[in-house]
Write a structure and sequence with these properties.
It comes from Pseudomonas syringae pv. maculicola. One of its GO terms (molecular function) is metallopeptidase activity. Residues 265-438 form the Metalloprotease TldD/E C-terminal domain. InterPro entries: Metalloprtase-TldD/E_C, TldD/PmbA_sf. Pfam families: PmbA_TldD_3rd. The structure is a single chain. The chain is an alpha+beta fold. Among the domains are: 1-48, no CATH class; 50-219, 2-Layer Sandwich (PmbA/TldD fold), CATH 3.30.2290.10. The protein contains 9 helices and 19 strands. It has helices at residues 51-65, 123-140, 170-181, 239-255, 274-284, 291-295, 302-305, 354-360, 388-392; strands spanning 16-17, 31-32, 42-43, 46-47, 70-87, 90-108, 111-119, 158-163, 185-201, 206-221, 227-234, 270-272, 317-319, 339-343, 346-347, 376-378, 395-408, 413-426, 429-433. Strands 5, 6, 7, 8, 9, 10 and 11 form a 7-stranded mixed beta sheet that branches. It has a 4-stranded mixed beta sheet with strand order 12-17-18-19. Helix 1 crosses helix 2. The chain starts with 15 loop residues before the first strand and ends in a 6-residue tail after the last strand.
């Protein structure tokens, strides 16, 4: 939608769409998709506000609407992301997702309830939606019991963090991906764009967080149906790093054409690639660092925190909030800082939300409901990627894992299967792919 003065201005280029197998000379040739927004940032004569301005305007509306006995918190979550899907190395679907969700909590006399409100970006419409939500919550609260573990943060604080590193042009990324894939059977998706997070309360808290990021997740399929899965994500696109990651996946793909190597049940020396480690750590975060789970003896890391066991002294983990995609404040309104969870293989801090703080008399440290990490950081080691096979010697190179579950949660024992490219290595060289294994 454009005003007249910008109808003839050339807008930004958008992702190229292929209609079936249409070629450039075909009547149904490739098209460029896009919606032009005029440079004066107005639609139908209404000026568009930034996400931060929209958020602060809604906060002002709520502050003016609540009664002296009422309090509120407002969490704001928004994104504006490009999504591009690939199949057989070509773009098959492209689009842009823009969404805004506000989580509005009303508190009065020890009772609280919350609603999620989808926002449109139009100030009048969103004000009405929030006003309706306020009325609905007012009608709900009298029917609820008082929460003995309600512990809102009543301190006034301010926080602002805008990470505006420029993202690569999506059209250029698509061109590079298609050029690298060539005739390979590549399947995957690319997503990129800014994320917005905000928090405000009637006690004077106001936080804003904005960060750009991208994620390219793809698989290269061999003609025999086997595949290599890879990923490249971050804040800053580095062409050289991406090419190295792609070439590594391409090299592994070539080994999938060899006859499968079957192993007998037993114990083997193994290297777990970062994606495989991520699957394991993801399981351990299911209550692993949660103060509530640890207090109720339901944490998979219970023995670690009780001091009955420890990891390798080389293993260090922290919740690294600073500089991450995660905001420096929680959805409950508590400021967050970096937390040291595991040092030299031994347990240290834990994640504490407001309910656990009230129930177990602990200081809240900014964990959200569920007390799971959102910016987990494992300290790197000294092994370079190009030395992995040499250091492994003879054993298993495991790229991915799937179907993980606990076989003994209290002891943090896992069961699962290998997935995608798992190889048998002898004397520092990949010999053959390994058939799917359960452990």
């Amino acid at each position: 939608l454009c005003c007249r003065r910008c109808q003839h201005l050339q807008g930004a280029r958008h992702t190229q769409l292929r209609q079936g197998r249409a070629q450039s000379g075909d009547p149904c040739r490739s098209r460029l998709s896009g919606v032009c927004i005029c440079q004066c940032r107005c639609i139908r004569r209404r000026r568009l506000m930034s996400h931060q301005q929209q958020f602060e305007a809604l906060v002002a509306v709520l502050k003016a609407a609540i009664s002296p006995t009422e309090h509120f918190t407002l969490a704001y979550d928004a994104e504006a992301s490009d999504f591009i899907r690939f199949n057989h190395g070509q773009v098959r679907q492209a689009g842009r997702v823009q969404q805004v969700i506000a989580t509005f909590k009303l508190i009065n006399d020890g009772r609280h309830a919350n609603l999620e409100v989808t926002l449109s970006g139009d100030s009048e419409t969103d004000t009405q939606r929030l006003t309706d939500a306020l009325q609905q919550l007012r009608e709900t609260l009298p029917a609820l019991a008082k929460d003995p573990y309600l512990l809102p943060n009543t301190e006034a604080w301010q926080s602002s963090n805008v990470q505006d590193l420029p993202l690569p042009d999506s059209a250029q990324v698509v061109e590079q991906i298609c050029e690298l894939s060539g005739e390979l059977d590549l399947v995957g998706f690319y997503a990129a764009g800014p994320l917005y997070r905000g928090f405000a309360s009637s006690w004077g808290a106001l936080g804003w967080h904005q960060a750009n990021s991208f994620n390219f997740d793809w698989s290269l399929f061999h003609e025999n149906g086997q595949a290599v899965k890879a990923n490249y994500a971050g804040h800053h696109w580095n062409n050289e790093a991406f090419v190295r990651r792609f070439e590594q996946a391409r090299e592994q793909l070539e080994f999938l054409g060899r006859p499968l190597h079957t192993l007998e049940p037993g114990q083997y020396r193994a290297y777990l690639a970062p994606a495989a480690v991520d699957e394991i750590i993801g399981m351990l975060t299911w209550g692993g660092f949660s103060a509530q789970a640890l207090a109720s003896k339901r944490s998979p890391l219970q023995r670690l925190y009780d001091g009955d066991t420890r990891f390798s002294p080389l293993f260090n983990v922290e919740e690294h909030v600073s500089g991450s995609l995660s905001p420096a404040f929680s959805r409950e309104g508590y400021p967050r800082k970096d937390l040291t969870l595991i040092v030299d293989g031994q347990a240290r801090e834990r994640l504490v939300d407001s309910s656990s703080a009230a129930e177990y008399d602990l200081p809240a440290n900014g964990a959200d409901y569920g007390e799971g990490p959102s910016a987990l950081d494992i300290a790197g080691g000294s092994l370079e990627l190009d030395q992995v096979l040499e250091k492994l010697g003879t054993g298993l190179y495991i790229s991915n894992l799937w179907y993980l579950n606990f076989s003994d949660r209290a002891a943090a024992r896992l069961t699962g299967m290998t997935r995608f490219a798992t190889f048998w290595v002898e004397e520092g060289r990949i010999v053959a792919p390994v058939s799917t294994m359960r452990f």
